[in-house]
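Q: I have 262 residues here and want to know how they pack in 3D. Can you give me a structure?
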Amino acid sequence: MLFDQSFIPAKSRQRWTMPLAIAIQLAAIAAFEVISVIFVVPELPAPRSLASQAILIAPLSAPPPPPPPAAARLPRPKMVAKKFDPTKLISPVRVPKQVAIVNEAAPVLPEAPEIAGVAGGVPGGVPGGVPGGVPGGIVGGALGGIGSVAPPPPPQIAAAPPKPAAPSRIRVGGNVEAGMLLREVPPEYPRLARQGRIHGTVQLKAIIGADGTVKELTFISGHPLLVAAAEEAVKQWIYKPTLLNGVPVEVETEIDVHFVPS
């Protein structure tokens, strides 16, 4: 409407409308930028002097010294092995003025020091002794009066452990010992036991001596009326001596005495 009321002709308005609008917008933007720079941007700090800048800069450290030069390696001398041939003679480098003759067959012994003897000997010495000996010394002593050393004692041989003592009494079964019986006396049947028709077996524990005789009797089982008669008969029995390694020993065994009514 604004351009319609203007005095510019219609054709002229169409030609300058677009460029004029662009120019107005660019001018507005430029004015805005200038105003923002002047009134909005803060004032920049003033540049510092060279003296103040020098204070802030840290001092530089001294550069490290250069490394020491490497030690020069000396060339190693080459060792040349010399071959020795025993079949060939090698001429000496120089001729010695004196040549010593060495006799390898006879060994060189050190010279013994001269010992001053005593004219007429020493009282208490041994005839034909060594000069320089000690009066009253030992025959065959060493030079200088050193007595003979006593020989070491003979080594002690460990004694064999003692053999265990053979037992003086062994235990034998009743049936085995019954075969060793030499003399058997039959028991006398008691009158009361016969009248009461009492019979059976009396068992006794017996100790038979080394000579074969009965030493001790101990009752084990049986009827009381038959015990006395059984013990009286067994005390008279005689056995063959029992040998252990050829030595007679005592025997512990059981004896059965049987009572049968007639």
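Q: Anything worth noting?
A: Strands lie at 169-171, 181-183, 200-208, 214-221, 238-239, 242-244, 247-259. The chain has six helices and seven strands.
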